[in-house]
Amino acid sequence: MSKLLILIPAYNEEGAIAGVVTEVRAAMPDAPVLVVDDCSADGTLTLARGAGARVLALPHHLGLGGCVQAGYRLAFELGYEYVIRVDGDGQHDPRDIVKILEALEREDCEMAIGSRFVNGSSGPNFGTGRAFGIAFFRAVLRPILGKTVHDPTSGFVGVNRTALGLFSRSFPLEYPEIEALVVLQRRRFRFVEVPCRFRPRQAGRSSITAVKSLYYMVHVLLGVFVNVLKFEGRRK
Amino acid sequence: MHRLLNVAALFSLALILGVLASVRRAHIRVEYSVSWLLAALALLGLSRSAGALRWIGGVLGVADPPLALLVVSGAIFVVVLFRLSLRISGLKDANIALAQRIAILEFRLETIDEKVKATPAG
């Protein structure tokens, strides 16, 4: 069995999902591709299957965290060593998957983050609000993690089996990327950032609106501090 | 008696009747109806007892009995709602775990079906 699984969480991504699966399969022909369909109301599930992915179909909408965790749980049960998550909207360049895998194999870390903001990366420009949000959480996380994470909201993330086991049991459910870093830190797990190429989403619109951005910041900030205060299960 | 206390008493009675009707029609489970019934009975009792309200008002430093009733009933209903939020959070976690388990089992069942179909008969 392949040791790497490519995980693509998707919700109403019929405009992009087939292209993403095709690109991922071309970039990593030996790795199975699992699309976790978060009960899409459009043709995401059918198109993903048609493009050659296996599909884990959730019976109702769980949100991003629940969707990703379902994939992690399945991957852990099936014995995969590495899982790399690629967004279903086409923002991540699948040619960079190999760089994330190499980092997981080579570096002494449990998680590798595909980053837009380290040397060698590239991506579309953000609006002021998004850039402010990223800078804000970078500053919040710096003292908690003990080092700078340049791209805390990146969903282009690879984990090894140790982190996979943790996330299959405990994973933030609504806006998982930032809180997941704190969950890792509580276990003294390590992460590295890998420069990656990011692109504009290929179809559809981001679910994060202006009003939701404010809710997002408050929600994630609260989640970060709740995770910091959690004591149970901390690795001695 | 202050008009506000009469309104509170009527509201309590309506809440009690509404909860009992919901229990009878199985729209609310008995264990959740208990919190609401206790809260409504407490509100009803206080709204009919000027002495108790004066005593509570003295403890809280609130001179006006209707205002004391509002403070107490607000606190009671906040506790009931917080208890329900705890319960809903637990149910949501259980629901997510269940949905994930169903999806994983279906996935593994499909995989077995595909393997069985791919196995030559005989």
Blueprint of the fold:
The complex is a heterodimer of chains A (236) and B (122).
Chain A: E1 4-10, H1 17-27, E2 33-37, H2 44-50, E3 54-57, H3 64-77, E4 82-85, H4 97-106, E5 111-115, H5 128-145, E6 157-160, H6 161-169, H7 176-186, E7 191-195, H8 210-229
Parallel strand pairs in A: 1-2, 1-4, 2-3, 5-7
Antiparallel strand pairs in A: 4-6, 5-6
Helix pairs in contact in A: 3-6, 5-7, 5-8, 7-8
Chain B: H1 3-24, H2 30-47, H3 50-60, H4 65-118
What CATH calls the topology of chain A is: Spore Coat Polysaccharide Biosynthesis Protein SpsA, Chain A
Assigned CATH architecture of chain A: Alpha-Beta Complex
Assign an overall shape of chain A: globular
Q: Low-confidence segments of chain A, ≥5 residues, pLDDT <50?
A: none
Strands of the largest sheet of chain A, in order across it? 3-2-1-4-6-5-7
Low-confidence stretches of chain B: none
| Amino- and carboxy-terminal Cα gap of chain B | 89 Å
The helix count of chain B comes to 4
Most extensive interface: A-B, 16 and 8 residues
- Oligomeric form of this entry? heterodimer
